[in-house]
Amino acid sequence: MNQLPEENSWSIPQRQAKAGLLILIYKSAIALVKTFWPLLAILLFRENKKGVDTLEIALIALPVFTLVISLINYFYFRFHIARDELIIRKGFIIKKTIAIPLYKIQAVHIEQNLLHQIANVVKVKIDTAGSEKTEAVIDAITVQKAEQLKEFLLQEKRLSANEEVATPPARDIPVMRLSLSDLVKLGLSANHIQAFFIVLAFSISLLQNLEEVFGDRVIRAVRDSSSAVGVSIASVSLVAAFVLIISVVVSMMRIFLNYFDFQLSESAQGFKIKTGLINTRQNLVPFSKIQYISWEANWIRRKVGLYNMEFHQVMSDDQRNKKQRVKVPLTQFTYVDKLLTHYHGLVQPTAQADYRIHTSYTFRRTLLFGILPVALLLTVLLLINWNPWLFLLVGWIPVIALHAFVFRRNFRLYVAPDALQVNSGIWGRRTQIIRWYKTQQVFLEQSIYQRKKELATLYLSTAGGTITIPYISLKLAQQIQDYALYEVERTERAWM
């Protein structure tokens, strides 16, 4: 192994920075507050207090317990490198050792939230191959040491994998950076309906929690204070304007928090991304881990040339459950070609064939998700209580029919010798590109109706997600399945 100066000898077990104790105390305190906040609220606002009881003693003991746990976690955390492995040991009662071979390290990410910035430390996350379920996290070390550890791990990873490292790595090539005007455009064109329902769900949850803690008094006060307001904003236009303002504000806040000072550059290993306002993140997207690439835009963003690209990477089971994706906001379509360079260009211009889904898709979707549910629900409700207004539910059927018709009209499947492209969408547009050799599993699905019509739905499964191709002919689905499996067996390139 390469020898480093003594002060950075990674073979010697090291603790986190002293500021890491502050981080641990904060995390333990937040976890306890989330668990016991109803008890805390009751103790603070209850009436008829008489002396010190068991609950108050427990409340006093919680901070002490938090401090003790944090001290134990801090003093029993060690990390070092030995025998070409990154080793992390932690725990006092339940001891845990994590050993990650250096050749399995895919990326090293550096993150810094507001508390890290105050303490002048960063969090280092070690990303491993998709088959690994454990990620190494060093929660608090100095910025300088984090950068040195990152470079050392990646260099040793290349040495362990017998990769060429004789020449110094090339400098990173800047690809794109978001300006303030770009952030404003992204915020104004975001999905405001989604933001509104997030606010609505939060408000409902907050009211339910208040009712559980304080009883009916707070709820009655909220209802009494809102009754007069309800009369003043009875106008539908005012309500619509209020909803729009709330959703726009929330969307703008999310965009600025997530993408402030967004920078993307290209290195020899992959794309480097730096972003965030309060929680800053420095992530690496290795080229080898990208399984397929997609980008999409709603109707408004398409008109102004904004897109949201996703790199679907190799993920462990835990990551897949959290639906972790690397998202890149694009302010012009020319960036698509630049970001596809190391994977595969657009398939559509060079495709040898293109296909659409079967015409029966529209009727079947309308029947299964429109006609049958409405008929069943309408019958049950009319039997319970006759009301002619219930027939408004029938309006759901043309909505589903329109969605199915537009989806079928926009769907295209483009096939080339080394890749496949799927274009889809209803009111927006989405494009997915996958290299054949990245496919891990291809399987067909047929309903009773599809068997009669000799149709099938095809699923191309990768380590980063699944691409669905619905209602194509059975013969075409079998040809795609056979060709994908043939390419996987024939191609010598590794899928990651």
What percentage of the residues does DSSP assign to strands (E)? Answer: 25-35%
**What's the overall average pLDDT, rounded?**
81
> What count of domains describes the coordinates?
4
Unreliable runs: 1-7, 228-234, 317-323
Count of strand segments: 20
The main sheet comes to: 7 strands, antiparallel
The computed structural class is: alpha+beta
Number of helices: 15
Helix content: 40-55%
* Broad shape: globular
Strand order of the largest sheet: 6-5-4-10-9-8-7
Quote the distance from N terminus to C terminus.
25 Å
Estimated radius of gyration: 28 Å
Structural notes for this entry:
By secondary structure, the protein is α+β, with helices and mostly antiparallel strands. The protein folds into 4 domains: 6-104 and 148-168, no CATH class; 185-259, no CATH class; 263-357 and 411-490, no CATH class; 360-406. Helix content is 46%, strand content 25%. The protein is built from 15 helices and 20 strands. It has helices at 19-45, 54-75, 114-119, 143-160, 180-188, 192-214, 216-232, 236-259, 299-304, 317-321, 334-340, 360-384, 396-410, 448-453, 474-490, and strands spanning 78-82, 85-90, 96-101, 105-112, 121-128, 136-142, 173-177, 263-266, 270-275, 280-286, 290-297, 307-313, 326-330, 353-355, 412-415, 419-424, 429-435, 441-445, 455-462, 465-473. The strands form 4 sheets. It has a 7-stranded antiparallel sheet with strand order 6-5-4-10-9-8-7. Strand 2 (85-90) and strand 3 form a beta hairpin. Helix 5 (180-188) runs antiparallel to helix 8 (236-259) and helix 6 packs across helix 8 (236-259). Mean pLDDT is 81; it is low at 1-7, 228-234 and 317-323.
